[in-house]
């Protein structure tokens, strides 16, 4: 451990002025130490910019504690709750609920019911963001506007407008905002132009430096004197559900956690080492107890979790917010502790096993290792610099051509005729080096393509409908070394991930094979190849033999096991008029008994082609984006046209890193991947 | 036909002192008499089971295939397992009536009628699964190459499922015609013995006005031979085509060139096991021990040793090839069968199909009615597991470990399977009360060649 710290320190020092150390916890002593390091590294003014702030989050725990005290003493006459839900998200939510009752007036502006609106005297529902006028400054000097996209669905009023009315100002918020901006807009820019542009960027001020006077020795010694319990509990936010504001959204509930791949639940993640020592098995119900709260939670054995720590996500354990979120998991905010006047998301916890029946998780991936198969190809930076093809060596086969023996790649040896492509030949590139596994693409795909939500019980039966998924693999201690093949006895050990594995992500959607195994087996030609390289699914021709899904090596085909829309058993977003408003009118909602899968957003391709036709110009590279490629925060997914020589897609394909998943099957996918390159020194993982 | 008599070294095929009249009496008795208590008990159980199956099937059609246990990875499970199992069971009937006819195996005459009936009932049971396992069974007719007004929509002649449609429908129609043709002279016999005029009328229609003239017999013999000729390739082709469902796919464990012969051998193996199970009960209940003799049982057991051994060799070959191919996925699929989460299914299959039939090398066991009955049940179970192993354990862990999952059936699909067993026995029990279970006219033709009292030494 100390060696690794020395190594990190050396690397940081070498990168002085270009480095930053981030503190993840609310402990002032730790923060002081980290700050000291950043000052030493000269991060202020270079990597840390205190002048041009990021305004996405803001808070002041001490003021909140002060308010709570005053409320409890009955010194607060009126409580207005806007854009927050303290009864749910405070460690002592019940204390807040009781204190609210002491105020003469309490108003909640929540636009959907939540735990706080339930205890307030009045609820004045705010507009939804899509119904509102607004402006924002997400980053200092960067302004943007919000315009309503739909007329208000219900009799709600925007919060700001309510305040105007209560202040006796006879103006709606739009006019008020417009008037306010009149003096702030740059010369020559009208309000309409600002709206049209949507963004206004002012030049950034130079970043300021900082010197710290904090006593680092005192901070360090105070940390050394801290004693933990047997386990340290970490309360965290999941990538999808976040703080729980949107936990009534079934898309987010059904989005698997990037690491554990579990949906619809929170749980106590423990390290494999601790689980072995304590005799915990996946799904055991554990009782956890901190100074202020206790709860029973199921346990997940999480490779990579540091031994001695356990973690639990917030956003669950909702009450009265809606049928999707209610009664799922436990509220982990109760385990947030107060460190003086600061909320602390870590703390000591006591854990004991209960005799309750084991819990069954709804996971979308129940097998976690690659079993020695070349699925996610990866290499190290060192190797990559030596040979860009590292980790992606092509396997050649001996082929007899007359008397000669030739060495050919899999895809050069084929019995099938090529499909003819017309003007376009669409494809997709996925850079495994960029993918962070967040799952934004999965939600985007769900939204774009009217993908059904099936609920916890159906996910348990491995029947989630997601058109794309992000596979996550752990390494195993038993993984064969390079060039070795795994023995029979070894195979079962390879199913067990390492305690501290390396993790890789791989987005997988329909690979749109040019020699698609699904197309040949369908008895009614419900799935066929388009002249643009797409593997298309004709829903109304499908009788549902599921043969195509069996024969798909990527297992990306999804069958409608039940009727999902208009079915009270699947009361998510397709069972009422309001929920159905999110459906994409360009995409058909599938009926029971048919197969479905990724269409490469064919409706967007069609739109792009029509727009090009109307403009009388060929389709420009990048004019069409699939939902996943558009949403990916790291640009890991690139959609394009192989028939355009200069397309980004072709440039990606020409890279030495590019390979086809399961290329040896010679199904010739139109989707390809780029090898992951890891920056690890000496071939060892820190 | 050569010679009127058989070599004395052969055991007689008809025991007891039978005359033509006695044979007519023996074989028509179950049709003409009242059903006994045992029949009613068996019939009630079978009928109720069938109704339960129908309820489960109706539930599936009403709610969706989701009422079964299949999932995104395992798209077929009990449905296709049961389909292949039932189709396999039908094969003994066709083999007995077609191939054994061409090879002039006279012992087939005591069992061919029931075996063919079994074929037909088994194919009906089998057919239910592909019909109802689709997501939208009401559109199944799209799998037929019918001219239509949907545009230029046509079926996919590349798809093994389409080949299945042709194979199974041909198989069913040929088997049905063959079986019914054989029934004609016997139905006429029953007609002629009827006292009740209504029954007489019905059997009259059923027997197509059979008069027993030389011309009737001539045409009967000719058509039988033609149909035997047509059925013979079916014995080999039907299960070959069923195996193509798997063999032409790319799933490790399915994509195997050995499948056609291996499936045909397995089908005959399981078919004979089912014939034995049924015949051992029927000969006892219907008092036909003198027609379906220990010799018949022994001969069928010999076929079971042969086909069981072929199947055993096939299992071993699959393993060898999986290793020899050097294909990672293929090797894993087979290691997973034997040692993975479904190891119990694999070893049930191995025990029932490979080990138990080898007991028939002992003459004592293969001539024991009880031992044969028990082993035949084992083979039936083993062959069901064979299909389960091929389908479920191959699918549940294929190429990408991220999609690996487990499968377990729901009570709905178990109900449908049990229901088909009910259907099968309901049909068979009704058959045994309405039609002669032994091909009477045919069997009479060999009485004087192989009947017990004609086989005394010295008469040649």
Pattern of helices and strands of chain B: HHHHHHHHHHHHHHHH
**At the fourth CATH level, what is the homologous superfamily of chain B?**
Formate dehydrogenase/DMSO reductase domain
The whole-number mean of residue pLDDT values of chain A reads 89
State Rg of chain A: 28 Å
Which CATH class of the domain at 378-681 in chain A?
Alpha Beta
Total beta-strand segments of chain A: 30
* Biggest beta sheet attributes of chain B: none
Explain this structure.
- The complex is a heterodimer of chains A (686) and B (460).
- Chain A has 686 residues and is of the alpha+beta class.
- Helix content of chain A is 24%, strand content 18%.
- In chain A, helix 2 (28-40) crosses helix 9.
- The longest helix of chain A is centred in the C-terminal third of the chain and has 14 residues, at 602-615.
- The model of chain A has no long low-confidence stretch (mean pLDDT 89).
- Chain B is an all-alpha fold and 460 residues long.
- Chain B has a single domain (20-134, 158-451), classed as Up-down Bundle (Formate dehydrogenase/DMSO reductase fold), CATH 1.20.1630.
- Chain B has helices spanning 20-32, 37-63, 78-102, 112-132, 160-193, 197-206, 214-247, 259-285, 294-325, 328-339, 343-355, 363-366, 369-396, 411-434, 440-444, 447-450.
- Chain B starts with 19 loop residues before the first helix and ends in a 10-residue tail after the last helix.
- The model of chain B has no long low-confidence stretch (mean pLDDT 88).
- The chains are: A alpha+beta (686), B mainly alpha (460).
- Chains A and B meet through strand 21, helix 15, helix 16, helix 17 and strand 25 of A and helix 5 and helix 10 of B.
């Amino acid at each position: 451990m100390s060696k690794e710290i020395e190594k990190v320190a050396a690397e940081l020092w070498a990168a002085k002025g270009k480095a930053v150390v981030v503190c993840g916890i609310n402990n002032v002593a730790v923060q002081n130490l980290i700050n000291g390091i950043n000052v030493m590294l000269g991060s202020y003014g270079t990597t840390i910019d205190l002048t041009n702030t990021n305004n996405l989050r803001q808070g002041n725990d001490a003021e909140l504690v002060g308010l709570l005290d005053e409320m409890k003493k009955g010194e607060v006459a009126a409580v207005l709750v806007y854009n927050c839900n303290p009864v749910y998200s405070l460690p002592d939510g019940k204390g807040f609920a009781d204190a609210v009752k002491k105020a003469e007036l309490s108003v909640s502006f929540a636009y959907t019911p939540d735990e706080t609106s339930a205890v307030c005297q009045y609820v004045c529902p705010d507009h939804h963001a899509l119904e509102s006028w607004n402006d924002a400054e997400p980053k200092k000097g960067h302004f943007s506007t919000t315009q309503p996209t739909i007329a208000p669905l219900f009799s709600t009023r925007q919060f700001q407008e309510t305040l105007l009315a209560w202040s006796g100002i006879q103006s709606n918020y739009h006019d008020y905002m417009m008037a306010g901006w009149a003096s702030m807009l740059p010369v020559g820019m009208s309000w309409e132009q600002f709206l049209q542009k949507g963004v206004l960027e002012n030049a950034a001020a130079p970043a300021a430096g900082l010197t710290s006077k904090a006593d680092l020795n005192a901070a360090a010694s105070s940390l050394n004197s801290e004693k933990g319990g047997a386990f340290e509990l970490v309360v965290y936010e999941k990538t999808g559900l976040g703080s729980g504001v949107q936990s009534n959204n079934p898309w987010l509930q059904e989005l698997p956690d990037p690491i554990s791949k579990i949906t619809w639940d929170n749980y106590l993640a423990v390290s494999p080492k601790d689980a072995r020592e304590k005799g915990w098995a996946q799904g055991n119900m554990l009782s956890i107890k901190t100074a202020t709260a206790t709860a029973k939670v199921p346990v997940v054995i999480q490779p990579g979790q540091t031994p001695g720590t356990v973690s639990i996500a917030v956003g669950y354990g909702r009450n009265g917010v809606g049928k999707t979120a209610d009664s799922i998991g436990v509220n982990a905010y109760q385990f947030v502790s107060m460190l003086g006047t600061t909320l602390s998301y870590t703390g000591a916890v006591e854990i004991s096993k209960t005799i309750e029946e084991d819990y069954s998780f709804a996971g979308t991936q129940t097998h976690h290792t690659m079993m020695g198969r070349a699925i996610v190809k990866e290499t190290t930076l060192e190797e990559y610099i030596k040979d860009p093809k590292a980790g992606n060596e092509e396997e050649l086969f001996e082929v007899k051509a007359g008397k000669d023996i030739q060495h050919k790649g899999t895809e050069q040896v084929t019995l099938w005729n090529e499909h003819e492509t017309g003007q376009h030949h669409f494809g997709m590139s996925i850079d495994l080096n960029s993918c962070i596994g967040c799952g934004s693409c999965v939600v985007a795909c769900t939204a774009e393509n009217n993908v059904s939500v099936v609920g916890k019980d159906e996910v348990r039966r491995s029947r989630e409908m997601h058109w794309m998924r992000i596979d996550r693999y752990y390494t195993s201690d038993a993984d064969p070394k390079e060039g070795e093949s795994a023995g029979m006895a070894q195979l079962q050990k390879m199913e067990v991930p390492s305690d501290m594995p390396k993790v890789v992500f791989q987005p997988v959607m329909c690979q749109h094979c040019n020699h698609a195994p699904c197309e040949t087996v369908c008895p009614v030609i419900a799935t066929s190849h388009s002249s643009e390289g797409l593997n298309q699914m004709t829903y109304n021709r499908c009788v549902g033999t599921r043969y195509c899904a069996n024969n798909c090596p990527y297992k990306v085909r999804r069958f409608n096991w039940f009727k999902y829309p208009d079915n009270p058993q699947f009361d998510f977003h397709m069972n009422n008029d309001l929920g159905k408003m999110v459906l994409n009118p360009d995409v058909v909602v599938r009926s029971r008994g048919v197969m479905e899968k990724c269409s490469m957003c064919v409706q967007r391709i069609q739109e792009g082609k029509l727009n090009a036709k109307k403009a009388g110009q060929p389709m420009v590279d990048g004019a069409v984006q699939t939902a996943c490629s558009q949403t990916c925060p790291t640009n890991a997914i690139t959609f394009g046209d192989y028939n355009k020589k200069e397309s980004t897609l072709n440039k990606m394909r020409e890279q030495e890193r590019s390979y086809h998943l399961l290329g040896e099957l010679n199904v010739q996918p139109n989707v390809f991947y780029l090898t992951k390159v890891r920056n690890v020194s000496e071939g060892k993982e820190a | 036909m050569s010679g009127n008599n058989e070599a004395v070294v052969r055991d007689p095929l008809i025991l007891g002192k039978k005359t033509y009249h006695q044979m007519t009496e023996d074989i028509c008795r179950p049709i003409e008499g009242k059903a006994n208590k045992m029949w009613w008990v068996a019939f009630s159980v079978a009928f109720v089971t069938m109704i339960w199956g129908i309820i489960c099937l109706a539930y599936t059609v009403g709610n969706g295939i989701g009422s079964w246990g299949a999932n995104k990875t395992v798209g077929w499970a009990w449905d296709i397992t049961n389909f292949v199992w039932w189709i396999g069971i039908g094969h003994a009937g066709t083999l007995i009536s077609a191939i054994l006819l061409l090879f002039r195996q006279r012992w087939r005459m005591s069992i061919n009628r029931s075996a063919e009936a079994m074929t037909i009932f088994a194919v009906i049971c089998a057919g239910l699964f592909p019909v109802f396992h689709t997501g939208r069974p009401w559109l199944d007719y799209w799998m037929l190459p019918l001219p239509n007004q949907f545009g230029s929509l046509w079926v996919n002649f590349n798809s093994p499922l389409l080949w299945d449609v042709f194979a199974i429908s041909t198989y069913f129609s040929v088997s049905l015609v063959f079986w019914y043709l054989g029934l004609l002279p016997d139905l006429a016999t029953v007609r002629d013995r009827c006292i009740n005029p209504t029954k007489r009328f019905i059997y009259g229609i059923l027997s197509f006005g059979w008069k027993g003239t030389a011309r009737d017999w001539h045409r009967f013999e000719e058509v039988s031979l033609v149909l035997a000729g047509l059925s013979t390739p079916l014995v080999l082709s039907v299960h070959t085509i069923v195996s193509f469902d798997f063999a032409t796919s790319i799933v490790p464990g399915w994509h195997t060139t050995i499948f056609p012969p291996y499936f045909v051998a397995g089908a005959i193996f399981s078919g004979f096991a089912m014939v034995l199970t049924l015949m051992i009960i029927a000969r006892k209940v219907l008092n036909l021990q003198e027609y379906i003799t220990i010799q018949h049982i022994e001969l069928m057991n010999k076929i079971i040793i042969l086909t069981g051994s072929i199947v055993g060799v096939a299992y071993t070959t699959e393993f060898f090839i999986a290793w020899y191919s050097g294909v990672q996925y293929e090797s894993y699929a087979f290691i997973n069968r034997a040692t993975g989460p479904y190891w119990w299914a694999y070893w049930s299959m191995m025990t029932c199909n490979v080990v138990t039939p080898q007991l028939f090398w002992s003459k004592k066991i293969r001539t024991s009615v009880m031992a044969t009955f028990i082993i035949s049940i084992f083979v039936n179970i083993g062959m069901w597991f064979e299909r389960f192993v091929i389908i479920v354990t191959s699918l549940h862990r294929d190429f990408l470990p991220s999609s690996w999952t487990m499968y377990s059936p729901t009570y709905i699909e178990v109900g449908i399977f049990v229901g088909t067993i009910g259907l099968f026995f309901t049909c068979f029990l009704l058959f045994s009360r309405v039609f002669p279970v032994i091909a009477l006219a045919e069997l009479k033709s060999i009485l004087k060649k192989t009947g017990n009292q004609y086989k005394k030494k010295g008469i040649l």
